[in-house]
Design a protein that fits this description.
single chain; alpha/beta; 2 domains; 50% helix; elongated
Length: 226
Amino acid sequence: MSADTSNTDRANPNRIGNTGAITAIIVDDDPLIVQSLRTILEARGAVRVAGTSTEGSAAADLYAACRPDIALLDIRMPRTSGLAAAERILADDPHARVVFLTTFADDDYIVRALALGARGYLIKQDVATLEGALHAVMDGQIVMGAEVSGRVGALAGRSLEGGSALAGSLTEREREVAELIAEGLDNREIAAALYLSEGTVRNHISAILQKCGLRNRTQIAIAWWR
């Protein structure tokens, strides 16, 4: 089992001369992938990799040490997942730009990543487009691989009805409930946050589903995000 291989470039900050480069950290449990991504991203000098790690548990500390523009995380890692690492990073810095780069386009991972506030969900097979995706994130966009976009469309029923309803036709309280669902809170946590009973929360969720033509809370989260 490999030890934590966290490292930063603070000792040699001028290794890449382009001071306008995007700074990033890479966290993936496969050292070969870490090195490959570093080579690809730094090839043209547009991205500077400020630090890397093969341990998800080190991601938050690495982010705090480097304060990069973007945290590039694998989603499935032993002991501490990318989702857990992202949650810690975003708790410390709600404005952090977290981008997941993974081989898994599972619905649950996608929904949880978007609910956390990730700025991107990319598939490793699309690594050739990674540099452009990071620039898009810096421009304020949320980026997804083609396969992921397809899954998001399927989850939302490929309908604008839900999104438009969430934008306008819900009551203020229903919008608050929908937003908290999109943030990943369960009914108990929503009830505590809004000082409501769990029964009242369930009633609001039922109303949201009916008004928006959605089937479940996962679709609420996707529709809110869209």
